[in-house]
Specification:
Blueprint: E1 2-4, H1 9-20, E2 23-26, E3 51-53, H2 60-71, E4 75-78, H3 91-99, H4 104-120, H5 126-141, H6 150-167, H7 170-186, H8 191-271, H9 274-296, H10 303-331
Antiparallel strand pairs: 1-3, 2-4
Length: about 350
């Protein structure tokens, strides 16, 4: 049986009932209308051209996993009475259990065993043969043992709860919520499981609230540190800019003084006052050295390091805020009733 996203829900349900004699519970969008297509309730991130193939040898667990992994649709296979069935049963095997159907291949295998028994004890009475037939029938009608019981689900929930309690991480929270929702869908009529889920939700809500307070405190500390680094960086950069402007003005002033001294030296040389002209040369040389030291003076500014550090912390702060928002929104699910 090939199933595509172009099939309607009503066609899918009819095909399952006709092919396998089972009903299919769809837990997303089916309340709208049975005539809607599967792609309308499928996960939009999945491949819209994908399909799955199911036959009578497919197990219940595999069939439900195919719908979940390929289409993003959560389904649950039930018998015609609406009762949940074992995850290990095959779709064809459920019909056998409902009708007491005996497969011919299985009969042949059992008959071979019976033939060996008849060879060993040829004097068996007709009453013993009737008992063997009843035993053979009861073999096929006996349901298989469910692999996951309510107690197993409770233990699994407790394991994820302990993981969330230790780490308080977002991923641990999602694992716990997914486990509880899956358990609730698997055993919707178990009062013991529902009560345990509500208890775990209450405890997890307290943990998430405490974790949110810790995260808010960490964000507050990051805001303070980022602000301090930004103020220091901007202040240092402003001071360096002021010092640079001041040096540029001093350099312009020295250049003007050197020009004036050179003009004066020229006039003294024309008038023949060589001694004073030589004295002006010494003053010009000293001012030129001062000008060169100002123009060649370079130093690394720590303002750049402070600004880079503040920008880096600002990025981390934004990530913390986004994660806190996602964490807070998801933790609200703990407060919702099951």
């Amino acid at each position: 049986m090939k199933i595509t996203l172009d099939m309607s829900i009503s066609k899918l349900l009819d095909a399952f009932d006709r092919e396998f004699g089972v009903s299919l519970g769809i837990y997303k969008g089916a309340h709208k209308s049975d005539n809607i297509k599967l792609f309308e309730i499928a996960d939009p991130r999945k491949n819209q051209k994908a399909f799955i193939v199911i036959n009578k040898d497919t197990s219940v667990e595999s069939a439900e996993a195919m719908f979940r992994n390929t289409f993003g649709i959560r389904v649950q296979v039930k018998d015609r009475n609406g009762n949940t069935v074992s995850q290990e049963n095959t779709l064809g095997g459920i019909r056998k259990l409902d009708k007491g159907f005996v497969d011919n291949n299985d009969n042949n295998n059992i008959n071979l065993i019976d033939d060996e028994n008849e060879d060993i004890s040829d004097d068996s009475s007709e009453e013993n043969n009737n008992k063997k037939k009843k035993n053979k029938k009861s073999y096929f009608l006996k349901p298989k043992v469910v692999k996951h019981t309510v107690e197993d689900k409770i233990k699994e929930i407790d394991k994820y709860y302990l993981g969330f309690q230790r780490s308080e991480r977002y991923k641990s929270m999602l694992n716990l919520l997914s486990c509880m929702e899956e358990a609730r869908l698997t055993y919707p009529d178990s009062k013991e499981l529902i009560d345990h889920i509500e208890e775990i939700k209450s405890k997890s809500l307290n943990i998430s609230n405490l974790s949110i307070k810790k995260r808010k405190f960490a964000i507050l500390v990051l805001i303070i540190i980022t602000s301090i680094l930004s103020i220091i960086g901007i202040g240092t950069w402003g001071y360096n800019l002021y010092a640079k402007i001041k040096k540029d003005r001093e350099a312009d002033s020295i250049i003007k003084e050197i020009d004036n001294l050179r003009i004066r030296k020229g006039s003294l040389m024309e008038s023949g006052n060589i001694s004073e002209a030589n004295a002006i040369d010494e003053s010009i040389n000293s001012k030129s050295e001062r000008l060169n030291s100002i123009q060649n003076e370079t130093r690394a500014s720590i303002a750049n390091y402070f600004i880079i550090a503040s920008l880096f912390l600002a990025v981390i702060l934004a990530m913390f805020i986004l994660r806190l928002n996602k964490y807070n929104v998801t933790s609200i699910r703990f407060g919702k009733a099951t």
